[in-house]
Amino acid sequence: MLSTIKSIPEIPELPDEIIEAVNYENLAVFIGAGVSKVIGCLRWNELANKLVERCCDERLITQEEWCILTKWTDPKKTIDVCYHTLGEKMFLEELNKSLKEGIGIEEDKDIYKYIIKLRGLFLTTNADTHFDKFFESNRIFLCFRTFL
Q: Quick one: three-class SS letters along 94-107?
């Protein structure tokens, strides 16, 4: 029975549809928060918790409000409330810390250098700018801002 178990290859074969999309320049790659997490950025729920703590540290919310905010299951809603509570300056300080802006990424953990090799159209809703270094600035479009 053990002989029927297949091993998982370190680098799996790409499906023909992906190869065709690359060859015909029709590949769209969505980069989600998991990619940013790999390089050390906080996930939405972790950022929400940090922002609530900052609101508390700054004495901008009560203990009761802290309890309410930490129980919400929608981190984006919590982040939005914290943005309006903290104000833009303190909010951006905390956001930049969570994205590790200006801090170098270890070479072996820079997943973006591998993703860029896919030769496609890259889409993301991530707030970090670590992927931007692979593109000319006039090729980066900000379609919306979640909080600002």
A: HHHHHHCCCCCCCH
